[in-house]
Amino acid sequence: MTYDLRRLRLHGLIERLPHTHRYRLTRDGLRSALFFTRSYARLFRSGLAQIIPADVPTTSTLRAAFDQLDRAIDHSCLANQLVA
Predict the structure, then answer these.
(1) How far apart are CA 1 and CA 15, in angstroms?
(2) I want to staple 29 with a disulfide (CB 3.0 to 4.6 A). Which of 2, 13, 43, 63 is the partner?
(3) Separation of alpha carbons 71 and 77, rounded Å
(4) C-alpha count within 13 angstroms, C-beta hemisphere, residue 12
(5) 62 class by beta-carbon count within 10 Å (0-12 exposed, 13-18 middle, 19+ buried)
(6) CB count, 10 Å around CB of 15?
């Protein structure tokens, strides 16, 4: 935990309250948290819903791109004799 708090503090996302063991979110930290929360809600959650379930139609461009990426990773693992 000390490592994580130190990294967040050095990146300016949190600041330590003087004479305590408490931290406060900075303005940049709040903006970053809101950005990642909104990105997850709007982009990743809906995008993953198109990729993960097996009953999704294969006509989805995102599903087709994901399948192509998956095949490329498998091919690279086989070519380099890696165990996936």
Answers:
(1) 15
(2) 13
(3) 10
(4) 4
(5) middle
(6) 13
